[in-house]
Write a structure and sequence with these properties.
By secondary structure, this protein is an all-alpha fold. It is found in: Membrane; Plastid, Chloroplast thylakoid membrane. Belongs to the CcmF/CycK/Ccl1/NrfE/CcsA family. GO terms for molecular function: heme binding.
Length: 322
Amino acid sequence: MIFSTLEHILTHISFSIVSIVITIHLITLLGNEIINPYDSSEKGMIATFLCLTGLLITRWIYSGHFPLSDLYESLIFLSWSFSLIHIVPYLKIRKNYLTTITASSTIFTQGFATSGLLTEIHKPTILVPALQSEWLIMHVSMMILSYAALLCGSLLSVALLVITFRNIFYSYKSNNLLQLNHSFSFGEIQYKNERNKIFKKTCFFSAKNYYKAQLIQQLDYWSYRVISLGFIFLTVGILSGAVWANEAWGSYWSWDPKETWAFITWIVFAIYLHTRTNKNLQGANSAIVATLGFLIIWICYFGVNLLGIGLHSYGSFTLTSS
């Protein structure tokens, strides 16, 4: 009873803190100045990480096994992974470009985990025989960490694409405006006034585009590194899962729906890393592949669980004993 109450308290505290962090970012984006918004959000994410860590430890002690046996526990661990990915670069360089993405991802996953949809599996249950193995921690934790890293990296690529296409749109609009001024016959004074306005706008957009170019460069930099880390975790997770499958079911690979989509995910991000070796394909081209990978990850992690079939049906909405 004590552990259940403590878990409930930690869940709501962490959710409240990360909600405040999101609010701070929204206020900052709207242009209102508050005292040290960056430091406040960073401290909030650290507090969220500590709360989620305490929640997982409490769940571990309460249930008697590592909390990765069902969808609810994996979502909490995914939230913890997002906060961990946020903290690591912050502790290293004291500057973090991932705050908005990691905070949003944390509140989304934790919000869904604590929603009414998963109330049936909030309470810890005894592990089914297939999950009673030391490989549970190794395999599932690596897979969830890889999902978190790949999702963050993919979202950075999505942001890169949005900014890039917006620049293309405004550049196209500006060129059309210049052509329009030359097409119509203005009086000399009127023409000069219009031309000066356009030149001022062009100078403004040039300065603005410089900062956008710097932002795109940073997004590309962090996207590549976070996805590379996630790809390593995914590879280790798939290999450890194959060894565990051989021990449990007598076969390294069974083309189970979960295994198949994990392999597809691995292929997509292998293609992404391959495109990074070609300078002509870096930037927007590789970001398109990462964006596709973002959709594939959700199918692999969540979409397959909706079906509740196959050898990996333990993580479906209704936890079965088969």
